[in-house]
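Example record used in the benchmark description.
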Amino acid sequence: MSTENKSFIGLLRSFNPTYWITSGMELFERWAWYGMFAVLALYLTGSTDEGALGFTHTEKGYIMGPVTAILYLLPIFTGVIADKIGYKLSLVIAYVILIVGYYLLGTVSSFWSFYIIFLFVALGAAMFKPVASGAITKTTDKSNSTLGFGIFYMMVNVGGFIGPAMSSYLRTTFGWKLVFIQAAVVIGINLILVLLFFKEPYREKTEESFGEAIANAAKKIVEAVMDVRLTVLLVIMIGFWTMFNQLFYTLPTFIEDWVDTKLLHDQIASFWPWLASIMSGGGDSVNPEWLINIDAGAIVLLQALVSFFVLKMRHVSAMIRGFIIAAIGIGITFYTHNGMFTIVGIVIFAVGEMMTNPTFSSFIAIISPRGKEALYQGAYFLPVAAGNFFTTFVSGNLYQAWSDKLGLLQGEMAKRNIEMPEITQEFTKNNYFELASEKLGMSQNEMTQLIWDTYQPNRIWYVIVAIGLVSIIALSVYDRMVIRPKEKNGESPTD
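Model output (structure tokens):
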């Protein structure tokens, strides 16, 4: 039945139980991941006297970027494993790895120990990702795939909202270690779900050995990227993901360093004192992860509606419009240190994200050959992996040079010939800010404003938005030169 002949309720009823169980497990997996990842930048770079690790932004970038890139690259091969050994067994293996990995993340403090265990977590997440996407692909068709992936993406963001909200409470009330224990416990729930309720979807069985299957997968990926039309689209999507990743890699520390959320806290407290207390951890400013969480909250509320609206759009047209909206939103979030503008920018960005990401995922699903759904969903992860890798240099090296509050303040103190101790375990980042404020004869807010006015740390938005603009132009040219001519001739875009 065509999409036009189905109502919204009819489309919802067309999904079978496996679809809903998979979507539920996605919710819990994202709860665990974003409960850790949304606050990871703060944990890595925060002051050691608060239980954080005290790494530089460059070190943060080299942990979060390459490891997460590997996470999204591995599904090309873990998808093959899933097709070979079955989705259920793959999920069990993934969940066991994640439970162990998340717990261990909260027990280490050196750069390399954290890096190695985070890589172990990435392996578990990479085992999960193509199975979840593949199961959704197998339980949807052309009449409901856009809505199906839209709801699936909404479930991603339900988990993506709950996780950071819980982590914000846990880290401010009980300390950082509980954030990682939470993630392990939530994945434990998923392990129970898969053992008791998940039914293995239909899959093509072959006589290939594991080695042959992986070699063939590599060959097929090479064959796929040899198609210039597909490769160009994947390369263009790298820009979207590089821009998107700033929400989790860069914005939390930008808010922590520069955005004044005290007025926002006071406004919330005038109506809901309990909510203001939760969002601030008992302080007088809203925690950065709560502002980041607005993205997930908006998607939870609006994704199904936006996906239904996008159903009548061409796939590429929806992505272009989503790109434009997302670029406007992310630009606003980095342009000012006013907390209200940060909220507005994140909401606008969320609308663009809702239009772009599920639509691209649906487009990949439509071109997936029968029996190779998990493998072809792996192609979706190629630009995601590259986007995470390139984010390393924006969130790490560039932020360290242009926008790191501590680094800029150290430069200002040196320029004024004011001697300051080096950062150590005994003399922490917070101690440095307090002493610098005292020696400058300013309050910490006045000191922050001085550094903002002098060094303009928000200029990083030029680079972030420029990445989005290049992607918008490239996708528009791609649509005009590749997709529209084929549509005019009545061909499939992938023919």
